[in-house]
């Protein structure tokens, strides 16, 4: 029996003004108050981090960012560093989301640098990986996951027994499309990811690392996904925007 506490994370992507984000974070904190046995995190836009951190004060809901730069500071217009995120109140950072890979030139190499920098800054890194529809159709899913993990985690050794690394499996074809991977498709990918993590990080760390599923997670499908042995939580986009709906996902048990 392993002891991975489920993590339900909300990626708010490019939605909400600072005022709306603070209001919704406060509402969520109230809705999930007292819920035990599950960790909760929300990741608003950079502009919303400080007001949301204030709204979450005294709550167990953690704050994450959606991206970061690998340098600690410098002439990088438009970027934020790990220490800056930490100072703004973040404990987590999402790295390598498929939207960043697709639209903003994120590569396994930049993902690798960012994860190293995140861990150095004392942030928990949520590494996103996943195949496109074309890659799945060509039966390349496991090869894609293998490469994204091996290149993304090259020379990275999070301390053993810690939960500093989280992996999110997000099949690109399931993001925002309403198509969810079946529980069995997700479990197959998650079991494979854990096997590769064991090769890279050792069995103990692979066993304690949380692997989240992302892609059209909703209150109606979270329980079935969570019933699978290697699915340890969800990275939720659209259904995390409404506090009431997201709180239902948090309360899946
Ligand atoms: O980061 C979250 C994922 O991209 C999933 O988004 P979605 O729940 O809207 O499909």
Automatic annotation (TrEMBL):
<dbReference type="GO" id="GO:0006094">
    <property type="term" value="P:gluconeogenesis"/>
</dbReference>
<dbReference type="GO" id="GO:0004807">
    <property type="term" value="F:triose-phosphate isomerase activity"/>
</dbReference>
<comment type="function">
    <text>Involved in the gluconeogenesis. Catalyzes stereospecifically the conversion of dihydroxyacetone phosphate (DHAP) to D-glyceraldehyde-3-phosphate (G3P).</text>
</comment>
<keyword id="KW-0312">Gluconeogenesis</keyword>
<feature type="binding site">
    <location>
        <begin position="11"/>
        <end position="13"/>
    </location>
    <ligand>
        <name>substrate</name>
    </ligand>
</feature>
<feature type="binding site">
    <location>
        <begin position="237"/>
        <end position="238"/>
    </location>
    <ligand>
        <name>substrate</name>
    </ligand>
</feature>
<feature type="binding site">
    <location>
        <position position="176"/>
    </location>
    <ligand>
        <name>substrate</name>
    </ligand>
</feature>
<dbReference type="GO" id="GO:0006096">
    <property type="term" value="P:glycolytic process"/>
</dbReference>
<dbReference type="GO" id="GO:0005829">
    <property type="term" value="C:cytosol"/>
</dbReference>
<keyword id="KW-0324">Glycolysis</keyword>
<dbReference type="GO" id="GO:0019563">
    <property type="term" value="P:glycerol catabolic process"/>
</dbReference>
<dbReference type="InterPro" id="IPR022896">
    <property type="entry name" value="TrioseP_Isoase_bac/euk"/>
</dbReference>
<dbReference type="GO" id="GO:0046166">
    <property type="term" value="P:glyceraldehyde-3-phosphate biosynthetic process"/>
</dbReference>
<keyword id="KW-0413">Isomerase</keyword>
<comment type="subunit">
    <text>Homodimer.</text>
</comment>
<comment type="pathway">
    <text>Carbohydrate biosynthesis; gluconeogenesis.</text>
</comment>
<dbReference type="InterPro" id="IPR000652">
    <property type="entry name" value="Triosephosphate_isomerase"/>
</dbReference>
<dbReference type="InterPro" id="IPR013785">
    <property type="entry name" value="Aldolase_TIM"/>
</dbReference>
<feature type="active site" description="Proton acceptor">
    <location>
        <position position="170"/>
    </location>
</feature>
<dbReference type="InterPro" id="IPR020861">
    <property type="entry name" value="Triosephosphate_isomerase_AS"/>
</dbReference>
<feature type="binding site">
    <location>
        <position position="216"/>
    </location>
    <ligand>
        <name>substrate</name>
    </ligand>
</feature>
<keyword id="KW-0963">Cytoplasm</keyword>
<feature type="active site" description="Electrophile">
    <location>
        <position position="97"/>
    </location>
</feature>
<comment type="similarity">
    <text>Belongs to the triosephosphate isomerase family.</text>
</comment>
<dbReference type="InterPro" id="IPR035990">
    <property type="entry name" value="TIM_sf"/>
</dbReference>
<comment type="pathway">
    <text>Carbohydrate degradation; glycolysis; D-glyceraldehyde 3-phosphate from glycerone phosphate: step 1/1.</text>
</comment>
<dbReference type="Pfam" id="PF00121">
    <property type="entry name" value="TIM"/>
</dbReference>
<protein>
    <recommendedName>
        <fullName>Triosephosphate isomerase</fullName>
        <ecNumber>5.3.1.1</ecNumber>
    </recommendedName>
</protein>
